[in-house]
Write a structure and sequence with these properties.
This protein is 23% helix and 26% strand. It is an alpha+beta fold. The chain has a single domain, classed as Sandwich (Jelly Rolls), CATH 2.60.120. The site of fe (ii) ion has 4 residues, from loops.
């Protein structure tokens, strides 16, 4: 697969909110915005050393990647964040250290200074803000992983829009527009080594490609599935949110979650028969 085999996601600077809405949000087209987080990038917390100094003793959960089983909720290890940063930075790669800190939101509660060091860029207004906090998803979330770390093909929760800002390292993304879903075998294709015999339709899939660098923010429209690999040790912050184009799926997802939670609570509280 050569780097130029796929159409590249647009890279923009000085993009106005109006341009973002017209060219990307409403048509549902991904984009990389190069200058969306200039105000928080200079913060020392968003460097490996700064993050380690401030939060290095925090115990974090890292997920082990298994090439056949991918991530499983129980295949985890707990380690101090500082230790994880050392592993990731000293060149341990995905083979020797197949662990990825994924979707970590606790740190933002433990260290309010972390929360204060990031601000949602004006492009990404979240309509979940109008709902009580207990109904919303927990964001922001941090991802930290070694060179080679993989996020398998998936579609984001509740069909929400997503954005991810890269603070350190490069990442390669392949993004599949919603109309390609029938070629993706329920998102079970291993994009890095597809099984063309068993999943022949995947050959016809035409993703868009994006390489993101430190300082870049990628916007992923609702229902665009994606596969991501860290080309270098990576530190990212991400949000999912509700906006034009995904109100229905987001609210549906939220209500379903509420119902499941209620049923679970009832089961716990119900007297034994
Ligand atoms: O950065 C990554 O590895 C993947 C992030 C992602 O796709 C997500 O948060 O849903
Ligand atoms: Fe995702």
């Amino acid at each position: 697969m050569s780097d130029s085999a796929y159409p590249q996601v647009d890279r923009r600077r000085n993009l106005s909110r109006e341009e973002f809405r017209r060219e990307y949000l409403y048509p549902g087209r991904p984009v990389i915005i190069e200058d969306a987080i200039e105000d928080w990038r200079s913060h020392r917390l968003w460097s490996w050393d700064g993050l380690k100094e401030a939060c290095g003793t925090a115990k974090v959960r890292v997920y082990r990647y298994d090439p056949t089983l991918e991530y499983r909720p129980n295949d985890v290890r707990f380690m101090p964040l500082g230790e994880l940063i050392d592993h990731v930075r000293t060149g341990d790669d995905w083979q020797s250290f197949p662990y990825y800190l994924r979707d970590e939101w606790n740190l933002f509660h433990q260290y309010p200074q972390l929360r204060a060091a990031q601000k949602v860029p004006g492009y990404f207004f979240d309509w979940f803000k109008f709902l009580p906090p207990r109904l919303r998803l927990e964001y922001p979330r941090i991802f930290i992983g070694p060179r080679g770390a993989i996020t398998p093909l998936h579609m984001d929760i509740w069909g929400t829009h997503a954005w991810l800002s890269q603070l350190s390292g490069r990442k390669r993304w392949l993004l599949f527009s919603p109309d390609q879903a029938p070629l993706l075998y329920g998102y079970k294709v291993r994009v890095e080594s597809p099984d063309h015999e068993r999943q022949p339709l995947f050959r016809q899939a035409r993703p868009m490609e994006a390489f993101i660098n430190p300082g870049d923010t990628i916007w992923v429209p609702s229902a665009w599935s994606h596969w991501v690999q860290s080309v270098e040790p990576g530190l990212s912050v991400t949000y999912n949110y509700m906006g034009p184009g995904c109100f229905k799926s987001s609210l549906k997802g939220m209500f379903k979650q509420q119902i499941v939670r209620r049923m679970r609570r009832k089961q716990v509280l119900a007297p034994a028969a």
